[in-house]
Amino acid sequence: MAFLNHEKEFARMNRDIDQLFGQFRKNVKQAAYRPVVDIEETEEGFVLQADLPGLAENEISIEVDGLDLVISGKREVAKTEKEATSFRRERPFGDFERRFKMGPNIQSENIKAAYKHGVLTVTLPRAEEDKPRKIEVQLH
């Protein structure tokens, strides 16, 4: 009997949560566009790749703000035919900004960016003194 009471309570909690999130979703007009990013560390520094499909190069801004690398832009809503009716829109759109902390070991003046097939690649070179180096062992 205790199991049935727990099952009813669990079902009630699920309904309450669904209602709460349903009300929340009604108040949200459009989810913010937040491009996904991969960051890899190499011996030379760091490589950041961001998925920005459908954007033109001139719609992407990359800036260095102190120790922050800032990638921003705007993804416009895809244009449809005048008589077309949207049944579903899952692709996010709107303004976006991503900030990434760079260590003081990054040569910010030598950061490079390339954009190909909807992927932005930003190369952040490591300062020479911070790169791994081999130390020779001297025999005495």
List the helices and strands and how they pair.
Elements: H1 2-27, E1 37-41, E2 45-51, E3 60-65, E4 68-75, E5 94-101, E6 112-116, E7 119-125
Antiparallel strand pairs: 1-2, 2-7, 3-4, 4-5, 6-7
Question: Any overview of this molecule?
Answer:
The chain has one helix spanning 2-27, and strands at residues 37-41, 45-51, 60-65, 68-75, 94-101, 112-116, 119-125. The model is unreliable at 24-30 (pLDDT under 50). The protein has one helix and seven strands; from the N terminus they run αβββββββ. Strand 3 and strand 4 form a beta hairpin. 9% of the residues are buried. With 140 residues, the chain is α+β, with helices and mostly antiparallel strands. The strands form two sheets. The protein has a four-stranded antiparallel sheet with strand order 1-2-7-6, with no helix packed on it. The protein has a three-stranded antiparallel sheet with strand order 3-4-5, with no helix packed on it. The chain is flat and about 80 Å long.
